[in-house]
Amino acid sequence: MDPVATNMFALGNAMTKFNGLNYADWSEKIQFQLGVMNLDMALIMDEKPAAITEDSTEDEKALLEDWERCL
């Protein structure tokens, strides 16, 4: 694994725990961590990508696969 990626994942070990009073800070750190792990697509997209059909492009297929991995 890439050393930079390893360091980014290590940030999860020092993640701020939600205590009911620190929502803004906690939320920002959680969203950052999900983005680093490429698991934030369901949070940043307004709706689910269209279903795959025979006419779907490779980009459309990849988008749906990424979306489903995030759930």
Provide structural commentary:
55% of the residues lie in helices and 0% in strands. It is built from four helices and no strands. The chain has helices spanning 3-10, 23-36, 41-44, 58-70. The chain is an all-alpha fold and 71 residues long. 0% of the residues are buried. The protein is elongated and about 50 Å long.
Brief summary of the model shown:
The chain has 71 residues and is mostly helical. It has helices at 3-10, 23-36, 41-44, 58-70. It folds into 2 domains: 1-37; 47-71.
Number of domains: 2
What is the distance, rounded to the nearest whole angstrom, between the alpha carbons of the first and last residues? Answer: 24 Å
Biggest beta sheet summary? none
Secondary-structure element sequence?
HHHH
Determine the number of helices (DSSP H or I, runs of at least 4 residues). 4
The proportion of residues forming helix, as a percent range, comes to 40-55%
Dominant shape: elongated
Content-based structural category: mainly alpha
Amount of beta strand: under 5%
- According to DSSP, the number of beta strands is 0
Low-confidence stretches: none
Mean pLDDT: 81
- Give me the Rg, rounded: 16 Å
